[in-house]
Write a structure and sequence with these properties.
The protein is mostly helical. It has a domain at about 55-285. It contains 17 helices and ten strands. Strands 3-6-9 form a three-stranded antiparallel beta sheet. The chain has a three-stranded mixed beta sheet with strand order 4-10-5.
């Protein structure tokens, strides 16, 4: 006869269905599992788990790798800079007519302040003034890429109502974009998920690889993407203002230039689809007038390489702290409204590109530039007075003797030091930057990490 100990007698009596079943039991007792904000039975919990697992096993619901997205944008930026360096004009573009200059500025609305050419050029750093064609071509190229692939993420849809329909609706993506914007007004998170799932499914893309030809939709979308990239390339090359910024070349070199531009746009289209189809977030593009002033500590804005801003000091041709942003050569890009199926529920904002800008230089640099080229009656009068003073010194032996007195070494060193301070007015201490932020800026701008000297820029 079994006996009950005192310890067993003190334990609370458990229900019959709360006993532990062996692992080989075919009918385990029901359990209660915690969910997001309520409880599930074991059957409900595993049903949700299998649903989430099946959903993420589908190619159109897998998230892309953020690291690959970041590397792709960095590589694309290098390709764009290489293309403009080879084919764009590296000159002040002073040969352009007044109407051409005005049309170029007007075409870059949202990327360039809408002022006259000379006013903008006078406030830029010296390297930018001498290479207006190069960075304007880069700006137009980025403007074209963002307008075609980021502002219109459904650009690859044909809009046909049947498989036998011969013609495509070139404006269908705008109608689809309008539907997306309406969904975003109701629920930004649902719209972001719907957008990425649609892009990934139409392009037969998974989170890490692209699987072309998986379905009839994927095959037709892949074929249409090639036609659209060719159309976008011809559209950009057909712009008269864009051609004004390119070097005149022979027909053979022009063919090479067009082929390289087509490859650039094709690479951009591939990467934009991978990003938009795998990020599951809504894009935010930073341009004018949203960007108004430049601040060195900002993580959303970096200076263009023509500012030659090092991480230790700001030369006289670096951006003025709090100065106006004149031109956005590359817009900023970030993604928000990203949902997480984990305990955090929402993912933080992901920035891939900080805006690259050309801003005002310190006013003292502008004054120096104006002094070098000053003309007019007042300047002539000043030079005449200086010449007369010099002639008087030569005719007067006493004055000549006083003028010829040697300058002490300490005074010469002090004068050189004052000149050095003037040339580097507007220094900014970058030592307070976080290591990660410093590395990011150095990666985006190779010239950013260089400690440049003023000697090469002396006349």
């Amino acid at each position: 006869m079994a006996t009950t100990t005192s310890a067993e007698a003190q334990q609370p009596k458990r229900a019959d269905n709360d006993t532990k079943s062996p692992p080989w039991s075919s009918s385990p007792p029901p359990r209660v599992y915690g969910g997001h904000n309520f409880f599930h039975t074991q059957e409900e919990y595993f049903d949700i788990y299998q649903h989430v697992h099946a959903m993420f096993s589908m190619p159109d619901c897998k998230r892309g790798l953020v690291e690959l997205m970041q590397d792709g944008f960095t590589e694309l930026h290098g390709v764009i800079q290489g293309w403009t360096f080879m084919w764009a004009r590296h000159e002040p573009m002073s040969h352009l007519s007044t109407d051409d200059k005005r049309e170029i500025i007007a075409s870059l609305d949202g990327y360039c302040v809408q002022e006259d050419w000379e006013s903008i050029q006078a406030r830029l750093p010296p390297p930018a003034r001498a290479n207006m064609g190069a960075f304007l071509a880069e700006t137009m190229l980025y403007q074209h890429l963002f307008a075609k692939f980021i502002d219109s993420p459904f650009w690859f849809l044909d809009g046909r109502t049947s498989a036998t329909m011969p013609e495509e609706d070139l404006d269908f993506h705008r109608k689809f974009q309008y539907l997306y914007e309406r969904l975003r007004q109701g629920s930004a998170y649902s719209a972001a998920w719907w957008k990425s799932a649609t892009i990934a499914n139409c392009n037969a893309m998974s989170g890490t690889v692209r699987v072309h030809g998986r379905s009839e939709l994927a095959r037709s979308t892949t074929a249409r993407r090639g036609r659209m990239v060719k159309l976008f390339t011809d559209e950009l090359l057909g712009r008269r203002l864009f051609q004004l910024l390119l070097k005149p070349k022979s027909p053979a070199e022009v063919a090479i230039r067009e082929e390289q531009l087509h490859d650039l746009l094709d690479q951009a289209a591939e990467h934009m689809i991978y990003t938009e189809g795998g990020i599951f977030g809504n894009s935010t593009v930073d341009r004018l007038p949203g960007l108004s002033t430049f601040h060195y500590q900002s993580t959303s804005v970096v200076p263009h390489q023509f500012h030659f801003t090092s991480q230790l000091r700001t030369p006289s041709f670096g951006p003025t702290e709090g100065g106006r942003i004149l031109i956005v050569t590359r817009p900023g890009l970030s993604y928000d409204d990203r949902l997480s199926l984990g305990p955090s529920y929402k993912l933080p904002s992901q920035r891939f590109l900080p805006a690259q800008v050309l801003a005002e230089v310190p006013k003292k640099e502008l004054k120096k530039g104006s002094k070098k080229g000053q003309n007019g009656p007042q300047a002539t009068q000043t030079r005449t007075a200086a010449s007369a003073s010099k002639a008087g010194t030569l005719t007067n032996p006493a004055k000549r003797q006083r003028t010829a007195r040697p300058v002490s070494a300490s005074k010469a060193a002090k004068a050189a030091e004052e000149e050095e301070k003037e040339d580097y007015e507007g220094e900014s201490d970058w030592s307070s930057l976080e290591p990660a932020e410093r590395q990011r800026r150095e990666r985006e701008h190779p010239a950013f990490g260089m400690t440049l000297r003023k000697t090469p820029w002396r006349k």
